[in-house]
Amino acid sequence: MSLLNWIVTALAIGIAAYLIPGIEVTLVGALVLAVVLGIINVFLKPIINLLTLPLNILTLGLFSLVVNALLIMLAGQIVPGFSVDGFWTAFLFGIVVALVSALFSAITKR
Description:
Helices cover about 75% and strands about 5% of the residues. By secondary structure, the protein is mainly alpha-helical. The protein has a two-stranded antiparallel ribbon with strand order 1-2.
């Protein structure tokens, strides 16, 4: 994870936390959460995606959003300074973080 990618992800986390009620994050929490989510996405997510492959095929990939929300809830248990109220809040948070990260990544690559 490059420094720019880390900052973009932390900024996306801060923006998503500002937009979505039920998400509480501090500045340090956003920075740590960016690292923890990166680690979870590298090590844990591929294993879970492999185990849930039949459900992902059945739902045309939409179940991966559920897996993402559950991993965000897991990160909420690990990272001090970050809390998420429930599943649907984590679900929406994951979508917003992905969209904001994609937007910032597209801007910074130019």
